């Protein structure tokens, strides 16, 4: 059995070989690679792409904002406005659903029986 | 290098950059090539990794703080690039880094840029069974003939720790070489 003493025996070479002129070619290759990286040309397409993206982003933001605001509006519509706009509901439908108290409240809010109205009624209607 | 600060200033100055970088390449391409080749084993892979190393060095020169020497900074970049290269290859093939290394050793026999004899091939096989850190220390000390102080700067390990790693590595390799 052969004994090995790596630190005192003649050194075992790694056995790796390198192609001829490799380092000269490597130097040229790297120097051209780094000069390409130094002069970074921004193509017109890249600039255009930026503006396309910017416009698209503004459009999308606008769309979502409008949708969001519309949504808020719908939530805030009062029952009165809804009834006024909903044409399939007739006046009769509304009256049927009103109680006496509701009618009294409406009369009071409209102030039908103030002095001027009563005078007018007496003069022309009776 | 005599005046490293002045050299770094030349590397950063756009007017002197090209000449200074060429000088850097001439100084370091050979030692870094051997360093990378010892890790990835095949010439073509070493060539790919070494290109990445110098491009990275160029791109990161402006971030080089000068806290460490250019020498150890570049060796660190080269070491990391070689390790990343092996890990990526392992991930792509769905095998471990050790298996990637084993495959690379098997390919050595038919590699035109490896004309090692039986004992050289056996030495490569012996190194491959060592833990990653011991492999690195052994290769840097035995093949690349770097000083412990230099290896310590590159790896950020104490000289004492490195000596212990090298000692263990040599023992295991000698035992492996003895067997048939």
Automatic annotation (TrEMBL), chain A:
On whether Membrane is a keyword of this UniProt record, the answer is yes
TM region positions: 50-69
Arranged from A to Z, the UniProt key words for this protein are: Membrane, Transmembrane, Transmembrane helix
Top-level division of the source organism's lineage: Bacteria
Q: What is this protein called?
A: Uncharacterized protein
Which species is the source of this protein?
A: Flavobacterium swingsii
From TrEMBL, chain B:
Q: What keywords are assigned to this protein?
A: Sigma factor, Transcription, Transcription regulation
Q: What InterPro entries does the record tag this protein with? A: RNA_pol_sigma-70-like (IPR039425), RNA_pol_sigma-70_dom (IPR014284), RNA_pol_sigma70_r2 (IPR007627), RNA_pol_sigma70_r4_t2 (IPR013249), RNA_pol_sigma_r2 (IPR013325), RNA_pol_sigma_r3/r4-like (IPR013324), WH-like_DNA-bd_sf (IPR036388)
The Gene Ontology terms for molecular function here are: DNA binding; sigma factor activity
**Which residue numbers delimit the RNA polymerase sigma-70 region domain?**
25-90
Q: Which GO terms describe its biological process?
A: DNA-templated transcription initiation
Q: Which domain of life is it from?
A: Bacteria
Record domain RNA polymerase sigma factor 70 region 4 type: where? 121-173
Matching Pfam families, A to Z?
Sigma70_r2, Sigma70_r4_2
State the family named in the UniProt similarity comment for this chain: Belongs to the sigma-70 factor family. ECF subfamily.
| Protein name per the record | RNA polymerase sigma-70 factor, ECF subfamily
């Amino acid at each position: 059995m052969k004994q090995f003493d790596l630190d005192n025996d003649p050194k075992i070479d790694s056995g790796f070989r390198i192609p001829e002129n490799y380092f000269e070619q490597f130097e040229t290759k790297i120097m051209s690679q780094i000069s390409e990286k130094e002069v970074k040309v921004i193509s017109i397409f890249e600039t255009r792409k930026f503006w396309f993206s910017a416009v698209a982003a503004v459009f999308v933001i606008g769309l979502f904002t409008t949708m969001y605001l519309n949504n808020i509006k719908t939530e805030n519509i009062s029952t009165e406005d809804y009834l006024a706009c909903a044409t399939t509901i007739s006046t009769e439908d509304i009256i049927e659903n009103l109680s006496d108290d509701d009618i009294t409240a409406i009369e009071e809010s409209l102030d039908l029986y103030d002095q001027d109205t009563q005078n007018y009624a007496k003069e022309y209607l009776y | 290098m005599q005046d490293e600060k002045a050299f770094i200033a030349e590397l950063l100055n756009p007017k002197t950059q090209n000449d200074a970088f060429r000088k850097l390449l001439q100084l370091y391409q050979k030692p870094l090539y051997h360093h990378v080749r010892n890790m990835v084993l095949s010439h073509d892979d070493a060539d790919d990794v070494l290109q990445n190393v110098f491009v990275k060095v160029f791109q990161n020169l402006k971030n080089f703080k000068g806290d460490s020497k250019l020498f150890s900074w570049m060796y660190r970049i080269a070491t990391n690039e070689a390790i990343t290269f092996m890990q990526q290859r392992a991930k792509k093939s769905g095998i471990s880094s050790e298996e990637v290394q084993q495959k690379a050793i098997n390919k050595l026999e038919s590699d035109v840029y490896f004309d090692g004899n039986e004992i050289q091939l056996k030495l490569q096989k012996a190194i491959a069974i060592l833990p990653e850190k011991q492999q690195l220390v052994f290769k840097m000390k035995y093949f690349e003939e770097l000083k412990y102080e230099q290896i310590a700067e590159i790896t950020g390990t104490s000289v004492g720790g490195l000596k212990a790693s090298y000692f263990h590595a040599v023992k295991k390799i000698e035992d492996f070489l003895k067997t048939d």
